[in-house]
Amino acid sequence: MHRPRSIRMALHHELDPCAACTARGYSVCNAIEDKDLARLASAAMAREIPKGEIFIEEGEAASEFFNITSGTVKLYKLLPDGRQQVTGFASAGHFLGLAVSQTYAFSAEAIETTQLCAFSRPKMRELIQDFPALEQRLLETACNELVAAQEQMLLLGRKTARERVASFLVARAAVQLPCTRTSGDSIALPMTRGEIADYLGLTIETVSRTMSRFKAEKRIAIPSNTEVMLLDRPWLDSMAAGLD
Amino acid sequence: MHRPRSIRMALHHELDPCAACTARGYSVCNAIEDKDLARLASAAMAREIPKGEIFIEEGEAASEFFNITSGTVKLYKLLPDGRQQVTGFASAGHFLGLAVSQTYAFSAEAIETTQLCAFSRPKMRELIQDFPALEQRLLETACNELVAAQEQMLLLGRKTARERVASFLVARAAVQLPCTRTSGDSIALPMTRGEIADYLGLTIETVSRTMSRFKAEKRIAIPSNTEVMLLDRPWLDSMAAGLD
DNA sequence: CGCACACTTGAACCCCCTCAACCCAAGTGG
DNA sequence: CCACTTGGGTTGAGGGGGTTCAAGTGTGCG
Asked: How does pLDDT run across B155-167, given as a tens digit for each residue?
């Protein structure tokens, strides 16, 4: 995974890492033409976030925007007593910080070692001004997230525990089709059961029990805690859609 | 409410209704300068939607965008068996149809007689091209909705019934401060209990019971089914925040 | 007046949560 | 090498918040 990157790095100038970025194709950065990549690279600050680090804290001044190039982060909101709602998981290509407000509306924690590019607010403003296509891509991105958020509201407000877990699994399978295509219908789960639960509005125990039951019913297989195989896609799809 | 509008209509040319639009100040249309309003007006098709009419149906071709000038609509998604999740209520100034997709991701129904402006997809594209400020405003709008959606996910996934209803009431009070400021802390509820329930991920009965209990506890008063007075704002605020 | 519709209230039930024990794999240190 | 710890995951028993089912109460409107 890291080998081809270094090879391509050698082909380009060391000062133009954006050209070698494996996440560029999926991200808002593809709104910027090749000839302007140096400009983009100069605005970006590459950074590595170790697993477990909280690099965005809800309520803090929103001084930077982020673009993930590898790894996975969870986005979440907290209630004062510690109840947590995960609003999404973000991986390579995902843009973070879409908000007009002066403060972040959510927190973000790396759930595995994560590489990202940080853009300061002023730099971002400059980029948007100079590359109108970027703003268009940001709007597209925001709209897509809005659609996803509405779908998640339907899940949280109206679906049963079984429907939620099924929805989660098929959504994960869909999101992994383009990039990390593993053999068969196996999907990776970089997040813990607790994080899945906080994403689906359930408890750890309910997530665990539901997955165990799916396994007993031969709908899925669980080779390891971080991997699931979908054995009965049609059934999972219809369960996810609310047809049990 | 309608009297001042007709007076201002007389001051302007009849062909420039946008200049007289009472919703313009709150809407994305304020991105367009006065001198270009005629251009805006020529792209907009004013329309009246009677109460109960569904004017956007999930899955249909997304041929138009809408801007509400008066009234209220509910935005919702359905599961095949009829379960409904209301993703939001939209009133004057709200822009509908933010989506890149070719089809609508949600349905919309007028819950009272509603006035709106419709923009065809091509006209909208033209407007955005000619007025970059419009795209910027759309991005702002999308970001704000995203923040609201995340807050709603927290509510749906992690708040109790009492916290949900309290959150709903204080949010309604906040949204009505600028425009329909009624006497005291009274707020209007144009939607039915069923619609509130579908918005909060509860049942009609739970909404009704919870509001009755708030009333018995002297936190609110319910002068009519479409009106609520907030008697104990501090308590409601902390209940909404999750501090019971 | 009486029908329709929205809302309220009560009682029983159930899905999911809470609490608790246990399992298992991966360190860690003596 | 093994005892111990730690963190994530599973499984069971019991309880509770919200749902379901069912009746009853307004209230507007023909």
From this structure: 999 999 999 999 9
Give the integer Cα–Cα distance in Å for B202 and B108.
20
CA distance A9 to chain B (A): 34
Kindly give, in sequence order, each residue whose CB lies less than 8 Å from that of residue B90, ignoring residues fewer than 6 positions away.
B68, B72, B73, B74, B75, B96, B108
**How far away is chain A from the Cα of B53, in angstroms, using its nearest Cα?**
21
Evaluate the CA torsion angle B148, B223, B196, B105 in order and state its sign.
negative
Rounded to 10 degrees, what is the CA torsion of B147, B153, B155, B157? Answer: -160
| Residue in A83, A146, A198 to test binding to B, most B beta-carbons within 10 Å | A146
Between CA B27 and C1' D16 the distance (Å) reads 45
CA B161 to CA B164: how far, in whole Å? 5
pLDDT at A94 over 80: yes
- A141's enclosing H/E stretch is helix A132-158
Q: Could you give the C-alpha distances from B40 to A106, B12, B120, B141, in angstroms and in order?
A: 36, 15, 12, 18
Q: Which nucleotides of C are covered by protein (CB under 7 A)?
A: 6-11, 15-20
CB contacts < 8 A, A to B, total 124
| Exposure string for A119-155, b = 16+ CB within 10 A, e = fewer | beeebbeebbeebeebbbbbbbbbbebbbbbbbbbbb
Task: Tell me the chain A residues in contact with residue B144 when contact means C-beta distances shorter than 8 Å.
Answer: 100
Q: What's chain A's Rg over C-alpha atoms?
A: 19
Calculate the angstrom distance between C1' of D1 and CA of A224: 28
Does the structure show a pLDDT above 60 at A23? yes
- CB < 8 Å from A in window 196-215 of B: 198, 200-201
B242 touches chain A (CB under 8 A): yes
Are A217 and A166 spatial neighbours (Cβ–Cβ below 8 Å)? no
β-pairing, B220-224 vs B227-230, is antiparallel
Q: Scanning the structure block, which residue is given the tokens 């709106």? A: B116
Helices vs. strands in chain A: H and E counts, helices first: 9, 11
Q: Is residue B169 predicted with pLDDT exceeding 90? A: yes
- A132 at interface of B, judged by CB pairs closer than 8 A: yes
**How far is B217 from B155, CA to CA, in rounded Å?**
22
What is the distance, to the nearest Å, from the Cα of residue A58 to the centroid of all Cα atoms in its chain?
Answer: 17
d(CA B15, CA B40): 11
C-alpha B211/C-alpha A26 separation (Å) is 47
Q: Are B87 and A166 in contact (CB under 8 A)?
A: no
- How many whole angstroms separate alpha carbon A161 and alpha carbon A95? 30
A234 CA to centre of own chain:
25
Residue A207 has pLDDT above 80, yes or no: yes
